[in-house]
Design goal:
- The protein is α+β, with helices and mostly antiparallel strands and about 270 residues long.
- Helices cover about 35% and strands about 20% of the residues.
- The chain is built from nine helices and 14 strands.
- A seven-stranded mixed sheet has the order 5-4-6-10-3-11-14, sandwiched between helices. Strands 7-8-9 form a three-stranded antiparallel sheet. Strands 1-2 form a two-stranded antiparallel ribbon.
- Helix 2 runs parallel beside helix 8 and helix 8 crosses helix 9.
- The longest helix is centred in the C-terminal third of the chain and has 21 residues.
- The protein starts with a strand and ends with a strand.
C-alpha cells in the first residue's frame, strides 16, 4: 500500500454488474421496473497489516442511503471483515433470498493485480474460489458492485468463466489502483468548494464524526444519485446512470486531478 500526501491508494475497485439469467432485453426491462431492492454488502476494511479501507466502509453506507432516499423498499444484509468462508456464507444469503425485484450487491476488499481477494486474516483467494458456484447470479436481475483495484482484470475473468452480465462498471484499468478521496482536504482538489451539494449530502448521511473519506467510485455514485430525482428502474435507465458516472469521472480526470483518478469503464 502506498500513501502519498495523506491519500491512500488501496487496492480496491468498484465494479457494477447487472446480471441476467438468459433474459432478452424486453424481459429484462420488464423485470427491472420495480420498487423493491435487496441490498447485500460485504466489506473488508479493518486490516492490521495494510491500510484500512475507511472510504469503502463509508461508500457502502452511502449507496444504501441513496436507495432509501429514492424510495426503494429494501431488505439489507451486511457482513464486514470476514474470510473466504464468510464470503461463501454471504453468497448463500444472496441465493436464499427469494423476494422479487432488484438485487444490489456490494463487495469491497484489498485485491492483488492478479485478482486475488486479500482478507483481514492475511489469506488470499480468487473470486472464483470464494464463489464455489455462480448461482448467485441466477434469477432476478442483479447489480454487483465490486469495489476493488485492478478492475480491468474482472471483466476478463468474468467472460472467461462464462459469467453473464448486462453492465459492468470497472473502477480502474487492470494495471491501475483506485483512490480514497478526502472531501475535507483543500488540495489537490477542494471538494467542498467544487462539489458542495455532494459533500453536504454525504455529511448528512454519515454524521459529524465522518472525516471525509469516500472511495473514488463511491463519490461518483453520489454525484449521479444527486442528478436523478427519480431512481433508475429499467435496464436502459441503469445504463444511463452508469454511463453518467463514467463520463463525469473522465471529466474529473482531465479537468481536476489525474493524481486522484482511475479509469471508470462501463462494460456491456
Amino acid at each position: 500500500m502506498v500513501a502519498q500526501n495523506n491519500y491512500y491508494r488501496p487496492l480496491v475497485l468498484l465494479v457494477l454488474l447487472a446480471f441476467t439469467n438468459g433474459l432478452n432485453g424486453t424481459e429484462l426491462e420488464a423485470q427491472c421496473v420495480t420498487d423493491r431492492a435487496d441490498y447485500f454488502s460485504f466489506v473488508n476494511w479493518d486490516y492490521r497489516h495494510r491500510n484500512d479501507l475507511i472510504g469503502w466502509k463509508h461508500s457502502t453506507r452511502l449507496i444504501q442511503a441513496s436507495l432509501k432516499d429514492w424510495g426503494y423498499s429494501m431488505q439489507v444484509s451486511r457482513a464486514e471483515n470476514s474470510s473466504v468462508d464468510g464470503l461463501q456464507q454471504f453468497q448463500q444469503k444472496i441465493l436464499s433470498r427469494s423476494s422479487s425485484g432488484l438485487k444490489l450487491i456490494y463487495l469491497a476488499s484489498h485485491q492483488t493485480p492478479s485478482g486475488q481477494i486479500e482478507f483481514p486474516n492475511q489469506t488470499k483467494a480468487f473470486w472464483s474460489e470464494a464463489f464455489v458456484n455462480h448461482g448467485m447470479l441466477a434469477g432476478d436481475p442483479s447489480i454487483l458492485i465490486l469495489d476493488v483495484c485492478h478492475a480491468g482484470v474482472i471483466p476478463q475473468v468474468s467472460m472467461n468463466e462464462g459469467i453473464p452480465f448486462d453492465y459492468l462498471l470497472a473502477a480502474s484499468a487492470a494495471n491501475e489502483e483506485t483512490y480514497e478521496l478526502r472531501m475535507f482536504a483543500r488540495r489537490p482538489v477542494d471538494f467542498r468548494r467544487r462539489y458542495p451539494a455532494a459533500v453536504e449530502w454525504m455529511k448528512d448521511q454519515l454524521g459529524s464524526e465522518w472525516e471525509g473519506q469516500v472511495s473514488f467510485t463511491g463519490f461518483f455514485w453520489v454525484r449521479q444519485f444527486l442528478q436523478w430525482p427519480q431512481p433508475p428502474r429499467s435496464s436502459a435507465e441503469w445504463r444511463e446512470f452508469l454511463r453518467g458516472m463514467e463520463q463525469e469521472a473522465s471529466s474529473f480526470t482531465s479537468e481536476r486531478s489525474r493524481y486522484l483518478s482511475s479509469t471508470l469503464k462501463v462494460w456491456e
